[in-house]
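On clarity, I found the account of how folds are encoded harder to follow than it need be. What matters is that the chain and its backbone geometry are given together, residue for residue. The format is easy to grasp once an entry is in front of the reader. For illustration, here is how one protein appears when written out as sequence plus structure tokens.
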Amino acid sequence: MNAKNPAIFVAILLAAAGGYWLGQRQAPADSPAPAAQAGERQPLYYRNPMGLPDTSTVPKKDPMGMDYIAVFAGEEKADGSVRINPERIQTLGVRTEAVAKRSLAKALRATGRVEVDERRVYAVAPKFEGWVERLHVNATGQPVGRGQALFEVYSPELVSAQREYALAARELGAGTNADTKAAMSQVAEAALIRLRNWDISEEQVKALAAGGEGKRTLTFRSPVAGVVTEKKAVQGMRFGPGDALYQVADLSAVWVIAEVPEQDIGAVKTGAKAEVKIGAYPDKVFTGTIAYVYPTLKAETRTVPVRIELANPGGLLKPAMYAQVDLPTASRGSVLAVPLSAVIDSGTRQVVIVRTGDGRFAPRPVRLGARDDAYAEVIEGVSEGELVVTSANFLIDAESNLQSALSGMGEAPGKTATAVGHQAVGTLDAIDTTADTVTISHQPVADLKWPAMTMDFKLANPSLVTGLKPGAKVSVEFVERKPGEWVITKIDAGKH
């Protein structure tokens, strides 16, 4: 090969490379895109990843940078069920639990206050007129023992009755005639009745009968071991019959009055055990018995008082203390129940998301009954053994609502409509992509008794007008979504 031959060979190689490069530049125009390969599924549309009612005909991202999710044919049903691929289920953190029978026993929590047991309160009140001579207990709140002296009183009536009884007793013991003995016996009997009515002790009465002198004062003692909760006696004061000078309460047992909301009172049963917690003793739990459910309702708070009786060793529970009360409610036995986390409550109805298999999830309205802290009784809606979603159910419910909304307006893009509303043919005058509306000059619509006119329609989905341009002859199907709002669910070009 001479010197010219290498140059000719290089030129041939460059020409061949250029031809190959030009061929590659033109190849995409003649061959289908990779996404359009035969047998590969094409998405109908792309939906918002957070379940918002927003779709797109092309891939896009939401404001948070999350990719819109492709929806393929067969992944939505008219009943609102959705299909989620296994990878997406794992990403969302979907968890399920089987519907099963459980025994529900909810602990009802209520606020309450410690009160004195009304049956353990005693008033000390003389039954005669007199004066307070001396106080042995002179402060409210002072603890006293049973029989401990509280105060001494002087009463002219008391002194007179004692002298009458002592004199009559001496005369009866002397050798008097029968008439005198009969008279003295009546006097002694009358004096003794008065003394006993005034709570004079038997020891004092026996001392008088034995010839002793009556005492000038009378000592009143505590009828029970407890605490002085009220003291009106003042040394030297005058009192009348029935004046309560002292009040003593036995605090060895107390009441806790719990305020239970009226909607829960039907579950509270007497005889059940209740737990009481006091803020002053956070490490202690006091156990009492539900003794009485009051028959009245407090209109101001819409609560019913419930009385719990409990022992008070050491006097730790003070009257007027606030308490936190856990009241057990009557168990209904074994009932069909779902976790509370599985229930989506809109305020007007309750829904659970049921996993139906093959990655499909469907919303199911349920009617609930009794509840405890973790589960709710299901009266109707699901069967035993069905799987309900306990986490990420709100996202699935949002997706289901979106599918139902699309089904209500028409089928999703690319699917055949299952229900036809009204039909019309006409000319597409304008497309407003910002408002998802179109203007159509249509011919008369017989079933609505409309004449030929030009009007605006909403689009069930923006993809309905993909590839259409103003001036195209179209055939449309539409429904009335709400009064005065007409929504196109299907549109075909070139069909009259």
About this structure: The mean pLDDT is 79. The radius of gyration is 47 Å.
